[in-house]
């Protein structure tokens, strides 16, 4: 590693990085050390303002695009050179943890500050990005900000989406943008030289193998569906079961059939129904309508295609006598990361003598969309027992700092290449 | 029938009765001709105020007890004689109809007005009662007002119950009571000579047999349970299914097992899961907690006991590896109505030459609790295709008027006995 790069890496401040996690964790804090920071909520806005205040303290320019993705730039010396991007997201699951997403944002900020504190000039600009609505817990689907930024989807696709309380994304997004007047408007999909996302693993592998750094090779494929079941509401005491169209009973039959169909003796297939809304949702009324989500994932393209294509016919068959409507809401093919970026991260870890291993990602990330438009990689750090999307999510200050050092070294190499 | 009683029955005004249904249906109107008038809501308060305004126009005194049950009295000549009560409820299901409950209140008011217009004196007072929260759609359990009035339960049992939005019954009840300052306070469980409740059938039998009046012989037994399933929230992409405690998957298994267990080839058993709340309810988080309702009914005591007692062990077994907690929330034994009151109603129908038949009630009613403290009966009128707890619920003005005439005649006989 170049000596000036080593100097910048040495400026990574693990204590500051940890304190910033603690400060962010107070925004939307919930019992059990967790965080509830829904996309475009008042808490999301407070997190964005805190991030901007840290950027402004260093005089880093701040930009925002029309879906609310937030950018913080440390300018390079060559205005014609494409920038290197790094970041993740600041929204959380309804009962999320203190590290998912926010770590990649704060690690990128730490890299920018360390490089700045060392007085380094880089040929390319380095830009932090905080993607909007990665979790999709409030407004579906997930990874919305990076999907729109990279042109895979458009703002119009999502502007009328509503949360469980009936609030339109249009209004929540407008409030978010209005709360950040200092962010200069930025167009979508500005060309980039590379993108690196740091993230907690959200799985048990690094901890089990006693590694500090995961060099991520790619992301498994994913299909999301909304399944709607249309029944008929009736009095629970008087209507014989043979005359009912019970949308909840039909949903139970569909979910049981899908579980059976997706059963995988090797336990590689991930199948989840995590969201269900029942109408009218009253103990003595037969349900007239149920909406539930389907999330199915597999690293192999042929398998995920087969599983995804079976959902609709299987749901229709199992849901009789109710009518069933299946709407695909997300479709991500398995993704393989850029070999050069993966190699850069691996070299940085080796140079810094941090125990590292290559592994695929079980979770989706914004890096999946960035991989379609520029060379992309990811850095994982361990999380306790692999627990994530849970208040108990935990990571050590040392591992977070090690990840930020590897990120800083990798960004410098890419920014000066 | 006595001549003066005939005169009063002739004063029953079918057009006025129908118009009052239309006026009440505007309070909480929802698309498709339905009504959403939750207990202790702003709409419930408006309905109560409208009822009180009609009572006051006739100078009938108005009273309310501490759970919000509303009473309208036409005084009798003998202050020492126990009163005769008649009524039903004004709250509705979230997607309810224009006749369920409100018919029994308006029919009783029609009887009071017809008797008053005919200038009749009765020995006993006749009192209209509008029971609070019969439906239990917002605050569980149902038939709350009559359960508390008759001493089967106490206000303290329910005061801390919360609706799906987290609002406590305590606060909603206080607002309801405060909105009716003219109602004089009334103690619970004042002795009564008899109670008659008029109601739409909510089933298909009268229509099928071309009868206008159902002389109700009793009510089938009922058990309600809340089943809570405790899992562990995890990331849907990274956690192998073998390591999960998925509360929604376990709930699906429990409901499927309960459906199988309660399956009845004769289709007499009523089994319904109508309410389900999922936490955190996000597509890519494994559910950590699910609460769902169980409603099971049967006219035979031994059968309902057997079915009810099986729910908890069966849910625990089918819900593994999640922990399961089953809380009984309602327990009504099958109920047989008083032979003298049933006979009085039958005689009234015969005297008025209205086609009538005896039948049991599939639905629960406040009459079940009143039957424990005084001689009780019910009058059913047909509803279209047996549809109830549904916006499409419908009944004819002629049938509603016929029911009010039978009610008037029966109340007069009981009030002068």
Please tag this protein with its features.
homodimer, about 425 residues, alpha/beta, Aminopeptidase, Alpha-Beta Plaits, 2 domains, ten-stranded mixed beta sheet, 13 helices, 17 strands, about 20% strand
Folded structure, characterized:
Two copies of one chain form a homodimer. In chain A, α4 crosses α13 (397-415). In chain A, β3 and β4 form a beta hairpin. Chain A is an alpha/beta fold and 417 residues long. In chain A, the strands form three sheets. In chain A, strands 3, 4, 5, 6, 7, 8, 9, 15, 16 and 17 form a ten-stranded mixed sheet that branches. In chain A, strands 10, 11, 12, 13 and 14 form a five-stranded antiparallel sheet that branches. Chain A has a two-stranded antiparallel ribbon with strand order 1-2. Chain A has 13 helices and 17 strands. Chain A folds into two domains: 3-220 and 334-415, Aminopeptidase; 221-332, Alpha-Beta Plaits, CATH 3.30.70. The longest helix of chain A has 19 residues, at 397-415. The model of chain A has no long low-confidence stretch (mean pLDDT 96). Chain A is globular, with a radius of gyration of 22 Å. Helix content of chain A is 35%, strand content 22%. Chains A and B meet through α9, β11, β12 and β13 of A and α9, β11, β12 and β13 of B.
């Amino acid at each position: 590693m170049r000596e000036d790069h080593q100097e910048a890496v040495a400026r990574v401040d693990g204590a500051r990085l940890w304190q910033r996690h603690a400060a962010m964790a107070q925004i939307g804090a919930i019992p059990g050390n967790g965080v509830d920071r829904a996309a475009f909520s008042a808490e999301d806005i407070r997190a964005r303002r805190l991030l901007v205040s840290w950027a402004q303290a260093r005089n880093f320019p701040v930009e925002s695009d029309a879906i609310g993705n937030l950018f913080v730039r440390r300018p390079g010396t060559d205005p014609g050179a494409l920038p290197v991007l790094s970041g993740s997201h600041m929204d959380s699951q309804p009962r999320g943890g203190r590290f998912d997403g926010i770590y990649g944002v704060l690690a990128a900020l730490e890299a920018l500050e360390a490089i700045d504190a060392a007085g380094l000039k880089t040929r390319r600009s380095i830009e932090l990005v905080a993607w909007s609505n990665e979790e999709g817990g409030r407004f579906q689907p997930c990874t919305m900000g990076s999907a729109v930024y990279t042109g895979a989807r458009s703002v119009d696709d999502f502007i009328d989406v509503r949360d469980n309380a009936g609030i339109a994304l249009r209004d929540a997004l407008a409030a978010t943008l209005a709360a950040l007047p200092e962010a200069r408007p930025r167009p979508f999909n500005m060309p980039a030289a590379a993108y690196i996302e740091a993230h907690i693993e959200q799985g048990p592998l690094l901890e089990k193998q006693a590694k500090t750094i995961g060099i991520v090779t790619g992301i498994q494929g994913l299909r999301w569906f909304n399944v709607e079941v249309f029944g008929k509401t009736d009095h629970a005491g008087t209507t014989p079961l043979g005359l009912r169209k019970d949308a909840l009973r039909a949903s139970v039959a569909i979910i049981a059939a899908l579980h059976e169909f997706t059963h995988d003796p090797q336990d590689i297939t991930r199948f989840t129904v995590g969201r269900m809304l029942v109408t009218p949702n009253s103990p003595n009324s037969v349900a007239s309508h149920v909406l539930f989500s389907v999330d199915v994932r597999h690293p192999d393209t042929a398998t995920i295609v087969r599983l995804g294509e079976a959902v609709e016919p299987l749901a229709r068959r199992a849901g009789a006598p109710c009518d069933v409507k299946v709407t695909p809401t997300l479709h991500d093919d398995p993704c393989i990361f850029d070999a050069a970026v993966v190699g850069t991260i691996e070299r940085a870890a080796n140079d810094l003598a941090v125990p590292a291993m290559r592994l695929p990602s079980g979770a989706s990330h914004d890096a999946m969309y960035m991989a379609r438009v520029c060379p992309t990689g990811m850095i994982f750090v361990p999380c306790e027992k692999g627990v994530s999307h849970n208040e108990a999510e935990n990571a050590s200050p040392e591992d977070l700092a090690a990840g930020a050092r590897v990120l800083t070294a990798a960004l410098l190499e890419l920014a000066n290449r």
